[in-house]
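Exam revision sheet. Question 4 asks you to relate a sequence to its structure. Input first:
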Amino acid sequence: MISFRYHVVTIVAVFLALAVGVALGGGPLSEFGRSSDEANERVSAENEKLTKDLDRIQQVTEFQEAFGNAVVPADLSGVLADTRVAIVTMPGASSAVVEGLTEQINRAEGVVAGTYAIQPALIGADNKPLVDTLGSQLLETLASPGVADGATTYVRMGGLISRAIATGDDERGVDEDATSVRSSLTGAEMFTVTSGGDARADVIVVVLGSEPPSDDGSDKLLASLFAGMATTSKAVVVAGTTDTGSTGILKVLRENAEFTEAASSVDSVQSRTGQVVAAYALGRMQDGNTGQFGANGEDGPLPRG
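Answer key, structure tokens:
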């Protein structure tokens, strides 16, 4: 059974902090507050922050408990046997999360074929004309691009990235088309090979990073990009934190049918449990089905079966 001792201690600490905040607000600080509205506002804001922290910790703990009930123990043996995984990071992605995912992929008997980084230039809203032009040029030069005719700008670009790093068949070599896409995107400072990359993968896990601006259409752009990545790979799993699954970009993506029909997602991957779930999803969602998992996932804490 997974131990929740750490989370229990954390919750107790937060409760104590809340109690201290309430006591100070009603005791010594109450007099100070009468002469200083600013001090009262600071105390109120701190208590509100502590309450939100507690809610988030409780949410993650409930996820951990649900996971523990579903898998005792969390045995990943063979889940990714003979499966090569491409890890794609978004700008601002946590290196600790990438390391944790790599560990769980190895535990599941999978192999990380390569790690890649999408650069800000590829997803910047102002760069859409350049992304569109480059994608069109690549389609004209590739022998077998694997992208449907009439694909929109970012679905096409996602498909080209998938063609460069993943494959749906047994031929995993980096062929001329894959090399051409990598070289073009690297030259345009939109995409880099971080490590490995000598073979193409079967599945892709995308690690989310910094939250994009909420009003610049990033959700639609990313939904199309990730949907395009599912073109060649057997599965795409988008991994994010608990916060991004509850109030951030992953929550918005999960409300987009273009995304949910093409890709799976897992939140809470800042935790070891979330990383285990991501490995499960990579192994279990290669049949064409998709699911949304984690503390905020509507399909439960992890894939069944």
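Marking note for examiners. The first helix runs from residue 5 to 26.
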